[in-house]
Amino acid sequence: MKSIKNQTSAQCPHGCEPFDTDYYFFIRADENPELKDSILGGELNLMRCPSCGAFFHYEKELIYLDAANELLVFMFPLSLKGNEAELKKRMEQDYRALKDILLKSLKMDYPPVCVFGLEELKHLLEHEELSALESEAVAAASAAQGFEVARLKPSYARAHHFPYYIPAAPHTTTPNDYALAAAKVLKSGLHSTLLLNLKDHMSQEEAVLPLLV
């Protein structure tokens, strides 16, 4: 399933005559990375009124999917923020339909994320970018310390605020082994909140092994 546009009649906020246009309501960021860039740049679904020339964002419901990074986002218009509980229930229904019918081949086993408005979606993706950069730094520092680099399941790493890549030794078999590896990399001078979170979590007595890809 690829990115999809829909046709609509848009209304200029200055009260001009409605005009026909199209907008994205389903985005496959893993197949169309330029659309992710357009969100980060504030350009997605940006309309220009043919009557007065004013620019405005057309905010309708949007589904954003980055399958490679296990990120599925349902974006609702900011104006509907007051109906959050009801919309989250509907999101769960739509998610099941996507998972079981339209996107069955992807075998999604991760929960969706709910945001309101393009600005909130932009902030989420900016945070993802920062996490990815920090994770790459963790991978480089781990390799420099002689560790193998293991990749965590993306949705698991995101939910626990861990880096996407972590250090591992050939005989890393317990949670505490991962904690010790993380501690060594951190002592090398790397500053990473994500890796520190992993170390602290894996040091706990009830910790279980991290989910690797």
Describe this structure in words.
By secondary structure, the protein is of the alpha/beta class. The chain has a 5-stranded mixed beta sheet, sandwiched between helices. Helix 2 links the parallel strand 6 and strand 7. It is elongated, with a radius of gyration of 21 Å. The model has no long low-confidence stretch (mean pLDDT 94).
Give a concise summary:
The protein contains six helices and nine strands, in the order ββαββββαβαβαβαα.
Q: What are the SSEs and their pairings?
A:
Blueprint: E1 4-10, E2 19-28, H1 33-40, E3 46-48, E4 55-57, E5 62-66, E6 71-76, H2 84-102, E7 113-116, H3 118-144, E8 148-151, H4 154-160, E9 165-168, H5 175-187, H6 193-202
Parallel strand pairs: 2-5, 6-7
Antiparallel strand pairs: 1-2, 3-4, 5-6, 8-9
The proportion of residues in beta strands is 15-25%
Percent of residues in helices? 25-40%
Question: H/E element string?
Answer: EEHEEEEHEHEHEHH
Q: Estimate nothing, just give the exact number of structural domains.
A: 2
First-residue to last-residue Cα separation: 23 Å
By DSSP (H or I, 4+ residues per run), the number of helices equals 6
Largest sheet: 5 strands, mixed
Write down the overall mean pLDDT. Answer: 94
- Computed over alpha carbons, the radius of gyration is 21 Å
Total number of strands: 9
Shape: elongated
Strand order of the largest sheet: 1-2-5-6-7
> By helix and strand content, what is the structural category?
alpha/beta
pLDDT < 50 stretches: none
